[in-house]
């Protein structure tokens, strides 16, 4: 429970990183925070390996303690970060949330971000199970997940530049296209290379889709409205992601890997069409 609360705060850092940053540098700041996940993907497993057996017979006890220490160090680092507070009049101003939500494009932006996260988690959860069921070694499965994590966060070092150059909506759409390619590769076969390539495309697609959608969300709120709008966005995104996480294993056990892939294909297509068609209609208007 407390770990989930900590994760909820940590994921909000992508928005907090833009406080006090000029408009043209916000996408860069946000994507660099996402890029920090590369270090997490390397240090995290190493920390688990180093601490899991330090307190026998309580396996993983020291791992949880180490996790708490890492969080404490992060808190100390953040104490030195100074961001501008809201103006006095801004605290009580701002439009009603319902008015903000009804803005053209808001719902499809939130939906595309939610689908990007749900499909990523949906397939990432099921892929190791499928590899095991098809006789692929645990070592190969672990390597596939490691490459997936690198693909998730590695693009963060340049996604911001891509957003500044091509626009957040196009990067969001590119992410959804990569998610489609990930599904197609998965449907093409069950060799280890199919799984690996699918997971890599899945990671990059998630980064582009989720980061692009997060950048778009900031176009729908004023500075004094950011807390409620960003909180609503994350509530929807991670609520949908939770549904995908819980349903992935059940669908995998009942119907197999291909069913998981086809189940991922439909929402991605819907999100992509909504983003492209709605975006073009808005541009013509």
From TrEMBL:
Keywords: Cell membrane, Membrane, Transmembrane, Transmembrane helix. GO terms for molecular function: transmembrane transporter activity. InterPro entries: MFS, MFS_dom, MFS_trans_sf. The chain crosses the membrane at residues 32-54, 60-81, 110-133, 145-164, 171-190, 196-215, 235-255, 261-282. Gene3D superfamilies: MFS general substrate transporter like domains (1.20.1250.20). Residues 105-285 form the Major facilitator superfamily (MFS) profile domain. This is MFS transporter. It comes from Klebsiella michiganensis.
């Amino acid at each position: 429970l407390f770990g989930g609360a900590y994760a909820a705060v940590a994921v909000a850092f992508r928005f907090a990183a833009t406080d006090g940053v000029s408009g043209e540098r916000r996408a860069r700041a946000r994507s660099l925070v996402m890029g920090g996940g590369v270090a997490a993907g390397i240090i995290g497993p190493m920390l688990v390996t180093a601490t899991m057996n330090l307190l026998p017979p309580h396996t993983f006890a020291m791992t949880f303690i180490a996790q708490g220490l890492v969080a404490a160090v992060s808190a100390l680092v953040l104490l030195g970060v100074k961001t501008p507070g809201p103006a006095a009049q801004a605290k009580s101003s701002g439009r009603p949330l319902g008015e903000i939500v009804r803005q053209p494009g808001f719902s499809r932006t939130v939906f595309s971000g939610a689908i990007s996260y749900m499909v990523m988690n949906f397939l990432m959860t099921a892929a190791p199970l499928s590899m095991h069921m098809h006789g692929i070694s645990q070592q190969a499965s672990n390597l596939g997940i490691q490459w997936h994590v690198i693909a998730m966060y590695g693009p963060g070092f340049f996604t911001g530049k891509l957003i500044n150059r091509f626009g957040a909506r196009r990067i969001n759409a590119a992410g959804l296209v990569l998610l489609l390619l990930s599904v197609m590769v998965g449907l093409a076969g069950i060799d280890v290379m199919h799984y690996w390539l699918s997971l890599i495309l899945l990671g990059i697609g998630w980064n582009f889709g989720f980061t692009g959608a997060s950048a778009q969300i900031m176009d729908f709120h004023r500075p004094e409205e950011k807390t409620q709008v960003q909180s609503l966005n994350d509530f929807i995104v991670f609520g949908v992601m939770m549904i995908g996480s819980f349903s992935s294993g059940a669908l995998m056990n009942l119907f197999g890997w291909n069913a998981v892939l086809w189940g991922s294909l439909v929402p991605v297509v819907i999100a992509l069409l909504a983003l492209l068609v709605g975006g073009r209609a808005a541009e013509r208007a």
